[in-house]
Write a structure and sequence with these properties.
Helices cover 70% and strands 0% of the residues. By secondary structure, the protein is mainly alpha-helical. The protein starts with a helix and ends with a helix.
Length: 94
């Protein structure tokens, strides 16, 4: 993917990137090999066949919250939330 982003602009290509929310979900389930991708394809296919009519009526905000929940998990691993005392200090200084 890195070489595609380096060479792509020479041919007027769009940059490529990986899905951050998907990466956090894979990390949270403890996947160790790329075989999790095959399992995910099978499960996603079954969900789409069985639940498309039900999922159609979900608001986009609900679907976005699912993605943001995965990203939040990555954020907490990198940077733990501030203590209540730190929040009070931040609010008093602003």
């Amino acid at each position: 993917m890195g070489s595609a982003n380096l060479i792509g602009p020479l041919f007027q290509c769009y940059g490529s990137s990986g899905s951050l929310s998907r990466t956090s979900v894979v990390d949270s389930i403890g996947a160790r090999t790329v075989l999790h991708g095959a399992f995910a394809v099978v499960v996603m296919g079954l969900v789409l066949v069985a639940m498309t009519s039900t999922l159609f009526y979900l608001p986009k905000a609900t679907l976005a919250s699912i993605a943001l929940f995965g990203v939040y998990g990555m954020y907490v691993c990198v940077m733990p939330p501030p203590a209540p005392v730190e929040i009070v200090i931040i609010l008093n200084n602003s």
